[in-house]
Structures are given as structure tokens and as C-alpha cells.
Amino acid sequence: MRMLFLLTALVADIRSKIRHDLHGLTYLMETLDLIIKTSVNHEQQKGSLDTDIPLADNEVDLACEILKVLFNLTVHVDKTNLEEEEEAHFMRMVSILHDLLVCKTESSDKREELVSNTVNLLTTMPPTCYEELMTPITEGTLEVHAKKENEYEGQNMEAINALLEFLELRLDRAEEQQLQNLKDQLTPIFNCLWESSRNNRVIRKFLRSKVLPPLTDVTRRPEEGTHIRNKLCRLMTSPVMDIKEMVADFLFVLCKENVIRLVKYTGYGNAAGLLASRGLMHGGQGNVGKYSSESEESDTEEYSKAREHINLVTGHIDPVRPDPLAGMSEEQKEYEAVKLVEQLDRLTRDGIVQPMKVGSDGRPVPVEHILQLQEEITAENESEENGC
What we know:
The chain is mostly helical. The chain has helices spanning 2-10, 12-21, 24-45, 57-74, 84-102, 108-122, 142-145, 158-175, 182-199, 201-211, 228-235, 241-254, 259-266, 268-278, 301-306, 330-349, 371-385, and strands at residues 135-136, 151-152, 155-156, 310-311, 316-317, 356-358, 364-366. The protein has 17 helices and 7 strands. The longest helix has 22 residues, at 24-45.
């Protein structure tokens, strides 16, 4: 199997021959399915009635090698112009990947390796196939196949929950600085969750219920805490540009690309990078064509009461602080204001900072002098007074 992996990785011409002439996809998929079923059948022959049997380490190793070969065979396939037979192969493949995601293993390390290779292969699947990661719950199978936390709108979401748990595991490793290459470790799982959320309404709603549950505590900043939302908000200001963009895109899709909703959960400061790149700093929505028009807002009583006191930039209620201008005369206040303007002007002229304003296209544009910001505020106030 490792030889086949090397051949499909290094010899591009052989991939199409294995895929079509030798029916490689079918044989490899059925081998994966056989690994899963053989493990269960072996235990049942020993008298065990348990169907939740962990895969042995050698079975996981074989499955991972097959997943790597399948990745090489599918990564360059054009997913926009699939024939009916090819689409059926991909649907079948995702259903097997679902089974792998819900499989148990004998060790946590093997579990992580199996899910990692499964996620890599999922990133090569057509978006329409992600629905195979869910299985309908019928009355007779409810207790056997679905725990209550994995049940959502009549679907068993255990595989999606496994992806979310894998993401959180990688996020914890990132915060503990145990990941050697942050981008390579996080990109596949983010791409997988982003693509599935963008193309499947039920998956998106389930992930949003887990990642962005209704807000109750707004006394802390969005990036403070141990919930997965807090961890993602911390990465929105990561120095690794690709990571911060992936995190922001994922959360934006969970919010149906609604700026107000995103700012509500992350704070304007954390979301500013995404909004600037998309020209949405004035508000509005991104590409809403893929999302249903139904409202999913469900503010808690705690959030509704605190809404007027929330600082939209930080995303929380600012603690009470003493007024720094208290006890100053008007002359002292004016002196401090002028001194601040002079300091900002010096930083600008020295090239240390670059003052910006929001342009008409919703993106930041530089200003030549700090006083232009004051002119902008004055113009906005006059416009409001004239009712424009």
C-alpha cells in the first residue's frame, strides 16, 4: 500500500489509469469498508454483542495508508463536472468516511491519526457529498446510534461532532504551542468545516449551535475563556495571516455572512480584518445566496438586558473605570487634546503608524493628516443633522 501511495504521489499519469481502468477507487473504498466490518464481525464471532468495537492499531495503520492513496487519486479531480458514476463513487466514499469518523480505536494517538487522514480526504470531496456525513434517525435506531447531543433535526450528527472535537484538539495543541506547523495542521479541518457549513444547512446550524451558542455572559471579552468560541476568537488576531483568515471565514459562514451577527459574537475589533478585506466595514452582508432566509436569532434574556451596555468593539461590557478627565478644567482638556494630536501627527510623519478611515467601498483608506479624521467626523455630524 505504501508503494501505491508513492506511485500515485510521484507519477501523475498513473492516477487516471488506477481510477478508471483499474477501478482503484472502488477496490480501495470497499477495502476500507471491509476493515470496519471485519473488526465488528470478529468480536461477534467471539460472542460479543457490542457493535461499538475499537479498531486494532494495525487496522488503523492500513486504513490510513488507503486514505492517503485515495487522497492522491482524488485531489486533482475536477469536482464541478462529474459524471453520474463518479458522483456516486464520491457519495459512497463520504459514507465510508462517516463510518471511520465514528469508529473507536484502541489508543488516542491512533484515533487522531485516523481522523486526520479522514479529514484530508474529505477536503477533496465535492461539496454536495457532505450530506453523507449525517444519517437519518428513525424511531427504532434512536437509542442505539445517537446520543442526545448528537441528534439534530432528525439527523445523527456524530461524525460532524467528531470533526468538531478534532478541531478543538488541534486548537488546544496550538495554544500549548505543541504544533510545529500551525497552518498545515489547521488548514484541512477548517476547510472541511467551512465547506460543509457553506453547502449544507443542517450541518451549519448544528455547528453554530456548538460553536456560537446563545450568549449569556457578556462581562468577558469574546477571546477570554475556554469555550471553542473563545479559542477561535483568539486566533482571529493571529500573526499567521492564513490562520486568522480561515477562522474568520468559518465564523462568518456560521453567521450566514451577516456582519452584525458576526460582530455580536466576536467583537468588531476581532472581526475588523475580515470586514476590511471584504469591504464590509460599514456593515451589510456577504454572499447570502447560499443561505436560507429564515431567522436563527435567539437572544437570551441576559443578552437582551445587557445589549445597550455592550462595547461593540470589544464585544463585552466594559468594567467601570474612573473618568480620566474628571477634575480637569476646559483649558486642561483642550491642552491634552492638542498634545495628543501632535503626538499622533509625529508618529504618522515618522512612518510608525498610518491613520486610516473607512472609504466609500467599505475598506480602510489612508489619510494624509490626522486632522482629516476630525473633518470626517464633522462631515458625518452635519449629514446626520440634515437628515441625509
